[in-house]
Amino acid sequence: MNFLLITTCAFIATTSAQSTDCISQNLAVDVVAALEATLTHVGNVTQIGNALLADDFVEISDSILSLQSLPLGGVSAPSKQAWIEGISHSPADTNITTLDIGVVCPNKILWQWQFNAVGRAPYPVKGFNYIVMDDCPQIQTMYIEFNSIAWALDDGELNSSATA
Ligand SMILES: *[C@@H]1O[C@H](CO)[C@@H](O)[C@H](O)[C@H]1NC(C)=O
Ligand SMILES: *[C@@H]1O[C@H](CO)[C@@H](O)[C@H](O)[C@H]1NC(C)=O
Ligand SMILES: *[C@@H]1O[C@H](CO)[C@@H](O)[C@H](O)[C@H]1NC(C)=O
Predict the structure, then answer these.
(1) Nearest ligand to the C-alpha of residue 43?
(2) Range with the lowest mean pLDDT among 4-8, 55-59, 148-152?
(3) 116 close to ligand 2 (CB < 6 Angstrom)
């Protein structure tokens, strides 16, 4: 699979066009494939996470914080290690549809997705990852926002008759 290309920083740095103004669409597709392999647990989350995420990685998501009833505006994963632990211990998201992958020059990737099998899954959940790559290139910051009400209804955190 493509994500295996992202093995070391040095490999990517020599093969991607660092002299241009923008990361390549191919890199964007590889990064999304690697992320998806971790979320679905198809790949080794520790191995891929270590290759994919920068040492100063943070994840920022009010959608995730609100699902956890935590104050908004903070980080949802404070470090690479915390993210790897979190994904490793979460259930695999088995059915993810990629709706679009775009590059926002010079160094960002927009991944629009739909998770089809969250919990009991009455609702598909649409959302975006907005991914900031560093020069390595590894993921430095990942912003995630999605339909957290649909997610909460799917996995039983919200009672739909109470909100109707
Ligand atoms: C995943 O990779 C890590 C680090 O290389 C390794 O220690 C672990 O055994 C691997 N896990 C599986 C399930 O292969
Ligand atoms: C994944 O979800 C889509 C949309 O709900 C559905 O059409 C498809 O059959 C599902 N695939 C699997 C393997 O469950
Ligand atoms: C949802 O709330 C209604 C009304 O309070 C209650 O009757 C029902 O048992 C609740 N369902 C679940 C799954 O908690």
Answers:
(1) 1
(2) 4-8
(3) yes
Contact yes or no for 67/85 (Cβ under 8 A): no
Instruction: Kindly list the domain boundaries of the chain, sorted by start residue.
Output: 23-163
pTM over 0.90: no
**What residue owns the CA closest to ligand 2's atom 5?**
116
Nearest residue (by CA) to ligand 2, atom 14, is 95
Pocket, ligand 1, Cβ cutoff 6 A? 44, 46-47
Tell whether the model's pLDDT for residue 2 goes beyond 80.
no
Ligand 3, atom 7: closest residue by C-alpha: 161
Q: 20 burial class (0-12, 13-18, 19+ CB within 10 angstroms)?
A: exposed
**Structural contact between residues 156 and 119, judged by C-beta atoms closer than 8 angstroms:** yes
Residue with tokens 């959302």: 127
Residue partners of 75: CB distance under 8 A and separation at least 6: 58, 59, 60
CATH annotation of 23-163: 3.10.450.50
Name every residue whose Cβ is closer than 8 Å to that of residue 9 and which is 6 or more positions away in sequence.
Answer: 136, 137, 138
Neighbouring CB atoms inside 10 A of 108's CB total 17
3-state SS, residue 120: coil
